[in-house]
Specification:
single chain, globular, about 140 residues, 4 helices, Hypothetical upf0131 protein ytfp, 7 strands, alpha+beta, two-stranded antiparallel sheet, 5-stranded mixed beta sheet
């Protein structure tokens, strides 16, 4: 994983969501983007719950099922706004099996600590549901 400036066309990896409203907003933002399929991240993350939706945290040991899209810079900027990057979420480069590098939004550690996210790990059933893809 590394921080880079976005290229002209880039990929975004999106983790499935519990909250239907959140999923609909993400799907709307990605509706015109090229769908690249369902893939997995390395086992470097953890899922926690925050305001009825799962959030991805770095430094875990879970591999996440993600849906990957090829996006343009304008879409990336819309997603940045939606995920409140860089205040609430950080955008990191992540190696995705079968794709290569893709952006992934993870909750900023300081924000997660202040919001009490670490006190709400997802239960096994919620993790399975949150780890489903947005197709």
């Amino acid at each position: 994983m590394q921080h880079n400036q976005p290229e002209r066309n880039t990929c975004i990896a999106v983790c499935g969501q519990i909250d239907e409203e959140h999923s609909l907003k993400i799907n709307k933002l990605l509706a015109d983007c090229d769908y690249l399929g369902q893939h997995q991240t390395p086992a470097q993350f953890a899922l926690y719950q925050y305001k009825q939706q799962p959030v991805v945290i770095r430094d875990g040991n879970q591999s996440l099922n993600v849906t990957v899209y090829k996006i343009d810079i304008a879409t990336l900027k819309e997603l940045d706004s939606y995920f409140r990057y860089p205040t609430v979420h950080d955008r990191i480069r992540c190696e995705i099996q079968g794709i290569g590098d893709a952006w992934l939004y993870v909750m900023c550690e300081g924000y997660a600590a202040l919001a009490g996210v670490y006190q709400a790990p997802l239960k096994r059933e919620q993790t399975r549901q949150a780890n489903t893809v947005l197709a």
